[in-house]
C-alpha cells in the first residue's frame, strides 16, 4: 500500500491504514493487515472510512492518532489504539525503536534514507502546506497526545441553550443567536488545563507513589489538600499539586459572580449586582467568553448572569484591515483622544452598526471633532444670549416657560413651534432606539437634529428675536426655546459624549444636579405637525433663493429684493416670518413683496417654485449686471464647446478607443458627458439673459 506523507517520522505511531469505502482500487484490501516498515513486522489493520478523500495523494491515509487531530477523532470513533512517538523536547521516544532519542527532523532524514535503502521509498516531490509555528519562537508546532483536565460540556450547554429559548437571555444583534446556538449544539468537552506560567493553579493534588489518574484530592489550598490526603492515605502521605493552570477563559467565565464575593452569596455586593442586566462585548468572543459565563453562572448560582448580551464589532483601520504591529496600522486610543477628543472618539465608535466591524478613519474622527466643536459653540451662543445669572427676574420668566402641553406649543411662533416639535419627535425616536439597543441609530438621529435643525436653522432664526427685535416677549420666548431644546439635546447626547455635555450643562445657570443624574426627557410630548409642514415650506423658499444667489455669484453681503407669490393662508404665516426670510436669504426686508399675483417684471426675474402654492421672483438686475453676465457666459460657452469638441475627437478615433486602457476611455466619456451637460445649462441661462436684455 503506497502512502503519501509530509511527516515520515510519525510512521512509528501509525495504528491503521484507511481508504475510502467506495475506492475500488483498494476494496480487496479492506479488513486485511499491513506491515509498518522499519518496525520489525508490526501489523496494523486496513480500514474503510468516508473521511478519506480518494483524490488526495494516493488515496491511502496513514492513521497517526497521537500526532494528528483528525486521525485522533477517527481512532476514538473506531476504538483504535493511540501511540505517541515523540517527547516534549521534539525527540523520538522508545516507540520509535532504533530512532529513539533522535531529533524529529534528524529522524525524518534518517528514516527517509533507510526507506530508500530498503526499496520502500517510491519518490520525493515538493509539496506546499500550511505549517503551524509558535508565535513567539517560530518553532514548528507538533501535535502531541497528553493527559489534561476536561469539563463535560453537554449538560452545561443544554441549560445555556434553554436560557435563550425561554427568553431569559437575549443576544443582540439577533443574528448572533444562531451562532450561539450552533456552537452550543455542537459543543465538545472543554480542555481546561494549560501549561503556562501565569494563571489560576488547578486545585488538584496527587499522591506521591500513586497513579495520577486514580489517586488525587481536590481542595481550596495545600493545607486542606494534605488533611484530605491524610484522612484517606494516612499521616505519612506526601502530595504535590498539579503544575498546570486553568484555561484563561475558564477563569474569565467565573467573573460575573466571583468578583462579588461568591461562593458567599449572602454578601451585599452579590445580592445587589448579580445577576446583571447588560453585558457589552465584542462579537468575536461570543463563544470563548459569553457562552461560558452563561454556563458557569447557571451551574454555580442557578441564574443566568445577565439578561442581555450586546455585541459590538471589531475596530479596523480605514481600509478594513485588522490592526497589527506588523502592518503598522495600530491606532492608539490615547493618541486619538489627545488629537480628536475623548467624546469625538466615543461618538465615532457608537455610530457604527451593532455587530459590524468599524473601519476607523481620520475622516470620521475629524467629522465628529467638528460636531463636538459645533456643540460647544452652540453652548457659547446660548450663554452669550441668555440673561445674566444675577438677573433673577428674567430667569424666573425664562424657567416658567414650559412646552409640555398642547396649548403652550400652539402659542409658539413658527420657527419655535417647528424646533420644539422636532425635539419632541427626536426624544421619542432616540428613547426607542436606546431601548432596542440601536445605539448607532440614536447617535445619527441626534447628530442630524442638532446640526441640520437646531444649529443650522433655529439658532439662525432666533437671531431675529434676540437682536434688535424690539419685542421683549419674543426675545424671552426665543431664549426659553433655545434653553429648552439645548438642555434636552445635552441629555440625549450624554451617554455618548459625557464630558463635553456635562461641562456645558453645568455652565448653564440654575442647574440643580449634574447632568449624569438628571432625569431622562419625557416621551410622548405634544407635537404641532402643521408647524413642521409650514416651516419646511419656508426652508424650501430660502434654499431656492440661496441656490439662485450661488448660481449668479451674488456677493454674500448684497441684499436683494424679492416677490413672494402664494395663496392667502401661506402668505399669512410667511409674512409673520419676513425677518427670518430676509436674514437667512440675504434679502432686503424693506423690498420683500408678498402678493397673490405675478409681479409686473416677472419676465425679468428668476422664477423659483418652492412648493405648491409658494413661488418667488428675484429681479435679475438686483443680482447681476445682465450685459456683463451675457458677455461672461458667451466666453464660457465658447470655451466649453472647444473642450467638448476635443473630447469628441478623441472618442471618434478608433486607435484611441481600441488601444487606450479601458479606464482612460471611460474617463474621457464621463468628461464629455459632463461638458455636454454644462453646455446645455449655459445655453439655457444665456438664452434667458438675452431675452431679458431685449425686453
From TrEMBL:
Residues 625-689 form the Valyl-tRNA synthetase tRNA-binding arm domain. Residues 418-561 form the Methionyl/Valyl/Leucyl/Isoleucyl-tRNA synthetase anticodon-binding domain. Gene3D superfamilies: HUPs, Isoleucyl-tRNA Synthetase, Domain 1, Valyl-tRNA synthetase, C-terminal domain, Valyl/Leucyl/Isoleucyl-tRNA synthetase, editing domain. It comes from Aegilops tauschii subsp. strangulata. Residues 30-91 form the Leucyl-tRNA synthetase editing domain. Residues 623-692 form a coiled coil. Residues 124-361 form the Aminoacyl-tRNA synthetase class Ia domain. InterPro entries: aa-tRNA-synth_Ia, Anticodon_Ia_Val, Leu_tRNA-synth_edit, M/V/L/I-tRNA-synth_anticd-bd, Rossmann-like_a/b/a_fold, tRNA-bd_arm, tRNAsynth_Ia_anticodon-bd, Val-tRNA_synth_C_sf. One of its GO terms (cellular component) is cytosol. GO terms for molecular function: aminoacyl-tRNA deacylase activity; ATP binding; valine-tRNA ligase activity. GO terms for biological process: valyl-tRNA aminoacylation. It is an enzyme of class 6 (ligase). This is valine--tRNA ligase.
